[in-house]
Amino acid sequence: MKRTKPLSGPLDDDALFLRRVRPQTWTAPEPKDVYDLVIVGAGPAGLEAAEWAARRGFSVALTERAELGGNSLNAGSVPSKAIIRTAQVQDGMREADAFGATLPEAAPVRLSDAMARMRAIRTRIAVYHSMDELVALGVDVFFGAARFADRKTIVVGATQLSFRKALVATGARPRIPDIPDLEGTGYHTSDTIFDIKDMPRRLAVMGGGPLGCELAQAFCRLGAHVTIVQDEAKFLPREERDAAEILSWAMARDGMEIRLNTTVVAVRRDGDTKILQTLNNGARGEILADEILVCTGRSPNVEELDLAAAGITFEADRGIVVNDFLCTTNQDVYAAGDVCLSLMFTNAAQSSARMAVRNALTQAGQRHDDSVIPWCTFCDPEIAHIGLQVWEARKRSIPIKSYTVMLSDVDRAITDGQETGFVKIHIAEGSDRILGATIVASRASELINEMAVVMSTGIGMEALAEVVHTYPAQSGALMLAAQAYRRDVDETVRRLPPA
After folding, report:
1. What is the mean pLDDT of residues 248-272?
2. 349 in a structural domain
3. Is the pTM here over 0.85, yes or no?
4. What residues make up the domain containing 241?
5. What secondary structure, in 3-state letters, does the chain show?
6. Taking residues 415-435, what's their average pLDDT?
7. Do 303 and 164 share a structural domain?
């Protein structure tokens, strides 16, 4: 296989980033007669599968139409978290007085500096799954749009790749609502918002899902006047109502203008101003903006793959149809990540990819289970969840009981000045089996991982109450919830009549 030619002299972040994710000097290798595994898509799922299989000696071909890393590295998780961190630092400066600290008057954020930091971080992280890393593992990489020629062949440009097994991991793209004149007026999505040069004075964000809320709060804290428009009655419709309400209060505190139960029915331009025409319970309104950010969901990338030629069933809105083992209707083709899952998160993509490739190449027989995959919305406070929601349990007629600890009762949260939020753990009534948890906290993304370990290993509330936690730590809230369960059990035993 040919390596990229070494480049002399120092590279700036943009050039080095491209050198790692799509080098211009790359020459595709001569394809093997038959590959053990051909992967379509080099995002988190595709890269995870390629590296897993190659490390175990399987021959792997990886195809990608754009850049290695997919949405997560290029325009999703990594860029957004870098900008969110800058926004947190800026917001922390404004709260110095509340902590007895004194700081000089902070100058306005220069968006160009924040974006430069983001690009440097993205370039650094790209090294871990770069072209050089893949070449060193023996993965054959082919850039270009891929499609199925038949049930056992994938075509990339003029190159045919025959496979024993294949994995489709093409991810998803921003879903654009059908709104009159939206295209003509112009808008950004998560794919383009990190390319802007100047901070918009007024930003309208369409969509109250995780990414919409994250970017709305970040740009507000960086200095934009943000109006967020959500067509449902609350943000984050997949989360518990009290968690979503806390986020709504936090956004209002930051100075955001919030329009819930509001639908954008048309968009027009008046000079440099973009005008969103809205409808709320029959009342018409307008939102003036310099830029529009559309975050109204994502659509699986199933077009142009010629899936029918391989006998693969799919739906345009829901993606590729897979069974519990992540196998498609073609027994030799599997799928992973956003193209087939309802949980469109990087960790879900990577987990499903490992499972799919194990099932494909080793007949592992592992079943995909969403119930032990945590997720998080990285606002302030963060909202994280794993397992069953209350309404899901009721829908399935599963009796549950919840134990809630407010962060205002947790010593470390008090000392940190981060008392907004709670830990809520759901158990199966009559047992200590944990079915789910919701955490609203400044570091909910870290705390939820303890619950993931607990649930994955079958640890119940009784055992969790015995786990010794560092003190003081916000994770102590989990121990407090488990101890509340134990007190309930002790009280129940105490009330039993004597034998």
Report:
1. 95
2. yes
3. yes
4. 182-296
5. CCCCCCCCCCCCHHHHHHHHHCCCCCCCCCCCCCEEEEEECCCHHHHHHHHHHHHCCCCEEEEECCCCCHHHHHCCHHHHHHHHHHHHHHHHHHCHHHHCCCCCCCCCCCHHHHHHHHHHHHHHHHHHHCHHHHHHHCCEEEECCEEEEECCEEEECCEEEEEEEEEECCCEEECCCCCCCHHHHCCECCCCHHHCCCCCCEEEEECCCHHHHHHHHHHHHCCCEEEEECCCCCCCCCCCHHHHHHHHHHHHHHCCEEECCCEEEEEEEECCEEEEEEEECCEEEEEEECEEEECCCEEECCCCCCHHHHCCCEECCCEECCCCCCECCCCCEEECHHHCCCCCCHHHHHHHHHHHHHHHHHCCCCCCCHHHCCEEECCCCEEEEEECCHHHHHHCCCCEEEEEEEHHHCHHHHHHCCCCCEEEEEEECCCCCEEEEEEEECCHHHHHHHHHHHHHHCCCHHHHCCCCCCCCCCCHHHHHHHHHHHHHHHHHHHHCCCC
6. 96
7. yes
Residue 5 has pLDDT above 90, yes or no: no
The pLDDT value given to residue 11: 62
The span from the CA of 387 to the CA of 438, in Å, is 9
Residue 8 has pLDDT above 90, yes or no: no
The residue from 261, 296, 331 where one domain ends is 296
Token representation of residue 208: 């109250």
Q: What pLDDT, on a 0 to 100 scale, did the predictor assign at position 235?
A: 86
Percentage of the residues of the chain whose pLDDT score is greater than 70: 97
Tell me: do 473 and 442 sit in the same domain.
yes
- Closest by CA to 208, choosing from 297, 89, 284, is 297
- Within a domain: 61: yes
* Strand duo 263-270 + 159-168: pairing: unpaired
248 and 264 co-located in one domain: yes
Residues 21 and 131 in one domain: yes
CATH number of the domain bearing residue 477: 3.30.390.30
Q: Indicate the number of domains in the chain.
A: 3
In this structure, the answer to whether residues 330 and 291 fall within a common structural domain is no
pLDDT of amino acid 7: 37
- Which range has the worst mean pLDDT, 24-28, 123-127, 480-484? 24-28
Same-domain status, 154 and 290 = no
Has residue 170 got a pLDDT over 50?
yes
Select from 370, 398, 431 the last residue of a domain: 370
Task: Tell me if 80 is assigned to some domain.
Answer: no
CATH number for position 229? 3.50.50.60
Dihedral-angle region of residue 277 (phi above 0 means left; psi in -120 to 50 means alpha; beta otherwise): beta
For residue 499, the model assigns a pLDDT of 65
Structure confidence at residue 409 (pLDDT): 97
60 and 158 together in one domain: yes
Identify whether 84 is part of a domain.
no
- Tell me what the pLDDT averaged over the chain comes to: 94
> Do both 418 and 469 map to the same domain?
yes
